[in-house]
Write a sequence for this structure.
């Protein structure tokens, strides 16, 4: 059995070597010739999986180790009897921690001692948006959830969800929607010129969902105007050949890595492995925890002198500081235009190991219950 897999999927051999022969390929340049003799295809979000790719192949199972499926023509796979699985929620915690790290920097930038005084509108309450909302709620933030499809089908929706216009009134707006191009709940260019015009310099807009959710041409024009909002982009239109002018105008620019914690990536591989085992009728013998290495940073210690916000910031930024990714991406903008796309992909392929907050044990000596609750809400392990 031949398994063709994106070379950037972690732990391929560990999970799949005893199922079949593995052929690693570039997900960005994957062609019909690469999959013609494959039985199994494993991809990430950079590969378009459709009739053009698979019509002459013998592929009978496709797995994507990502939460999104807009790069896969699921209807065509179903019509051809090709099994399919994704990894919904695999990196939800990673993306939530990315947003929390951005929020801590933004509160510091604004001179706020209490970051929880920021109101946060979350657009898209799926796995990622819901996980972010849960964390923010535990931290004491005012959270407003916008998810029109859920609002339509769930009881008590008036109390749970707000409109997009209401979400856009919050101090912070964080986007977590799938990319849907057509229909009543289309998200393509959902944040257009009119929506951007309503946002002001006192607001922060974060997009870690799909680049096409924001009209990037309209965004660039808005950022060149007066009283523009602060913007953080992890996802971009025309990836990997992103607009250097837009990079120059946003506050933080990262190369589609919000969900790139080691835990998130390995969990995505594990979920696809489990689905493939079920498809093949094989026992599930492996778990992600078997393969996670000891973290480089395993413990932090705080005494009774620790100030709550400062201690939380130190801990979060010890695990992840988005300014490092911002600096790396901006350096690629100095390259010739023809080299920037490859550089963007290399930033993702060679992404340094990033561990989630749960990999660090926080030792607290004589600290307040409030500080303990903060660390628990952030997801750190505690030793008191």
């Amino acid at each position: 059995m031949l398994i063709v897999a994106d070379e950037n999927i972690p732990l391929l051999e560990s999970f799949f070597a005893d199922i079949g022969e593995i052929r690693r390929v570039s997900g960005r340049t994957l062609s019909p010739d690469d999959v013609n003799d494959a039985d199994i295809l494993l991809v990430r979000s950079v590969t378009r999986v459709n009739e053009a790719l698979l019509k002459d192949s013998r592929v009978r199972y496709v797995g994507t180790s990502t939460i999104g499926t807009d790069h896969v023509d699921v209807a065509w796979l179903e019509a051809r009897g090709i099994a399919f699985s994704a990894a919904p929620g695999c990196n939800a915690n990673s993306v939530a921690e990315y947003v929390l790290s951005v929020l801590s920097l933004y509160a510091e930038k604004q001179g706020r001692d209490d970051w929880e005084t920021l109101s946060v509108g979350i657009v898209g309450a799926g796995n990622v948006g819901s996980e972010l909302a849960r964390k923010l709620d535990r931290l004491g933030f005012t959270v407003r959830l916008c998810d029109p499809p859920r609002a339509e089908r769930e009881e008590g929706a008036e109390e749970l969800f707000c409109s997009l216009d209401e979400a856009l009134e919050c101090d912070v707006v964080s986007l977590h929607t799938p990319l849907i191009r057509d229909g009543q709940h289309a998200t393509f260019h959902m944040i257009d010129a009119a929506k951007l015009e309503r946002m002001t310099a006192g607001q922060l807009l974060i997009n870690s969902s799909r680049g096409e959710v924001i009209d990037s041409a309209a965004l660039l024009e808005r950022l060149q105007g007066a009283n523009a909002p602060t913007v953080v982009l992890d996802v971009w239109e025309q990836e990997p050949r992103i607009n250097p002018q837009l990079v120059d105008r946003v506050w933080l620019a990262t190369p589609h890595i919000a969900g790139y914690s080691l835990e998130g990536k390995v969990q995505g591989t594990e979920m696809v492995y489990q689905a493939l085992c079920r498809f093949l009728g094989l026992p599930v013998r492996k778990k992600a925890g078997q393969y996670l290495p000891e973290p480089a940073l395993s413990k932090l210690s705080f005494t009774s002198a620790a100030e709550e916000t400062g201690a939380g910031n130190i801990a979060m930024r010890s695990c992840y500081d988005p300014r490092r990714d911002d600096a790396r991406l901006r350096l690629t903008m100095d390259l010739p235009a023809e080299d920037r796309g490859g550089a963007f992909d290399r930033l993702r392929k060679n992404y340094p190991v990033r561990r989630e907050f749960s990999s660090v044990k926080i030792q607290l000596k004589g600290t307040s219950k409030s500080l303990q609750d903060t660390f628990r809400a952030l997801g750190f392990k505690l030793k008191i």
